[in-house]
Specification:
Blueprint: H1 2-33, H2 47-53, H3 65-84, H4 101-122, H5 134-155, E1 160-163, E2 167-170, H6 175-193, H7 199-217, H8 221-241, H9 251-267, H10 274-277, H11 279-298, H12 308-314, H13 319-347
Antiparallel strand pairs: 1-2
Length: about 350
Amino acid sequence: MLSSQVIRVLMLMGVSFVTALLLTPLVTKFLYRYKMGKQIRQSAETPIFSALHKNKEGTPTMGGIIIWATVLGLSLIFFILNLIFDGFWDYFNFVDRAQTYLPIAAMLIAAILGLVDDLFGVFKRGPNGGGMSAKRKLIIYLVISLIGAYWFYFKLNWTILHIPFLGSFEIDGWYIPLFIFIIFASAFSANETDGLDGLLGGVSLFSFGSLAVVSFALGRYELAAFSTVVAGALLAFLWFNIYPAKFFMGDTGSMALGITMGVIALLTNTIIFLPLFAPILVIESLSVIIQMISKKLFKKKIFLSTPIHHHFEALGWHESKVTMRFWIITAVSNGLGLVLFFLSRIVLR
C-alpha cells in the first residue's frame, strides 16, 4: 500500500511535468503574440531597482499560468475521468473533499486575483504604470486571509496548534489571527521574492517538495499528490524561467503559490516549520519591513535596495549567483526542517 502511494505521487509529478512542458509553447505564443510584457515601475523612490531591471521591460509576464493551469487542469481532468470511468482513474484522482478542496480553491482564487493585477500592469494601469499599488495588494491579501480564517474556524472547527516536540494545543479563537497572519505573510512574501529569473520558482519547488513529504508522512496522500503535482509544474516552468527568462511568473503565479503554500502548511499543522520550508520568503519580506521601518523612523536605508535580492544585485552580484545561492540556502533549510519534523514525531510517540 505504502509503496503504491509512493509510485502514485511520483507518477503524478511526472505527468504534471510533461503536461506543463506541453502547455508552455501555447502560453508563450499567446503572451508574445498579444505583447503581454512586464512594465518596470519608474520611480524616484526605487532608482536602483529601476536601473537594474530596465532591460527586462517588455518580457512577457503571467507565465505563472503554466503552473496553476497545469495543477487545476489535471485536478479537473482526473476528477471527471474518475466520475465517468470509476476504477482505474481513481488511482490518479487526487481531488478529495477533506484534503485538497481547500488548496485547489485557494490556488484558483489567488491565481485569478493575481491575473487581474498582471493585466493592470500590462496595460499600464496603477501607480507608475506598474499595476496595483502595494496598499491595494495588501488589502486583497487581507480579504483572502479573512475569508479563509472564517472557513477554517467556523466551518471546519480548526482550533489546534501543533508545536514541535511539545504537542498539540487548543488555541480556540486565537486560531483566526494566526490563520490571517500565515496566509497574509505567505502571499506578501511570495510576491516580494518573485524578482529574479528562477528565484521564486526554485525556492517554491523545495517548499512544495517538503510539504509533500510531510503530507505523505501524515497519511494525507491526496494532499501529498497535490503538492507533487505543483512541484512537477514548477520544474517545467523553471526550464524556461531560469536566466535569461523567456517569461516572468507574474502575480498570477506568485500569489497562487504563496497562498497555496500557506494553506497546505495550515492543513498539515506545520506552520512552525514553514520558515524552514520557505526561508527565503521570510528573509525577503523581513528585509522589506526592516527597510520601511528604518526609513520611517531614522530616515536611513539599511539595504541598498529591497527586497534583499536587489541589495545583492546592487553590490555587483549577477542575478544568477543570487538565485543559485538562495536555492542552496533553501535546500539546506528544508533538509533541516524535515529532520526536525521527523524527530518531533519520534519524540511525541
